[in-house]
Amino acid sequence: QITLKESGPTLVQPTQTLTLTCTFSGFSLIASGVGVGWIRQPPGKALEWLAIIYWDDDERYSPSLKNRLTITKDTSKNQVVLTLTNMDPVDTGTYYCAHKAVRGNWFDPWGQGTLVTVSS
Amino acid sequence: SYVLTQPPSVSVAPGKTARITCGGNDIGSKRVHWYQQKPGQAPVLVIYSDSDRPSGIPERFSGSNSGNTATLTISRVAAGDEADYYCQVWDSSSGAYVFGTGTKATVL
Fold it and tell me: What is the pLDDT of residue A101?
């Protein structure tokens, strides 16, 4: 059974850097075809894909946020870390990590999500 | 960047059929995936690769994809199907994942 769980601060001040950790179980990030992605959702709005890291260390980022995002993995700890710099109130929302299927480019399952609020 | 457009809302009576569209340029050449999101919960995959159902998803959920439109069809709609639905594709030209604008499905 694959599970993922996000952790990190619930409140971040403007201009600070957000660091979120996704801790997973039930799969390995060294297995061919596997990936872990991050998706966020502002309150009442649509899902927005942020970044993904693959088993082979390939990283991809949302074009609109590329300059602010970094994704890394620690296979020994079964963790993926996302950092988002220069936080702004518009970055407020629920941040999800999710498992990318080996067989194709969809996400299943997802973590429960963590709500991050940007405010001074 | 690639854009996926969905109607903001659809309404359907219990027992009837709901159809949710997802529009994108030549989307028929891509694989489309659909997620259901109920209030306060994480999204759940309901259709992958245009028309395949994950284990545990009722046969009432089906999908199709052709031309510039992909469609999620929910047959014999029940109250428990009331949720937001999102389509998603992978854009091979950029390696980016793209989500649709989302559709709120209301059961009358």
Answer: 87
Residue A40 CB coordination number (10 Å)? 23
Specify whether the CB–CB gap between A109 and B38 falls below 8 A: no
Residue A1 in contact with partner chain B when CB distance is under 8 A: no
* Contacting residues of B for A47, CB less than 8 Å apart: 35, 37, 43, 86, 88, 99, 102
Among A78, A48, A47, residue whose Cα is nearest residue A63: A48
Q: B101 — contact with chain A (CB < 8 Å)?
A: yes
The string of DSSP letters for B1-48 reads ----B--SEEEE-TTS-EEEEEE-TTGGGS--EEEEE-TTS--EEEEB
- Other Cβ atoms less than 10 A from the Cβ of B68: the count is 14
Q: Please report, for residues A18, A71, B107, the alpha-carbon distance to residue A48 in angstroms, rounded to integers and kept in the order given.
A: 17, 16, 26
CA distance B75 to A111: 28
Per residue in B32-88, pLDDT tens? 999 999 999 999 999 999 999 999 999 999 999 999 999 999 999 999 999 999 999
- For B33, counting Cβ atoms within 10 Å of its Cβ (0-12 exposed, 13-18 middle, 19+ buried), the class is buried
> Of A5, A4, A13, A3, whose CA–CA distance to A116 is shortest?
A13
**Tokens (6 digits) for B3:** 């854009």
Closest CA to A36 of A27, A45, A48, A44: A27
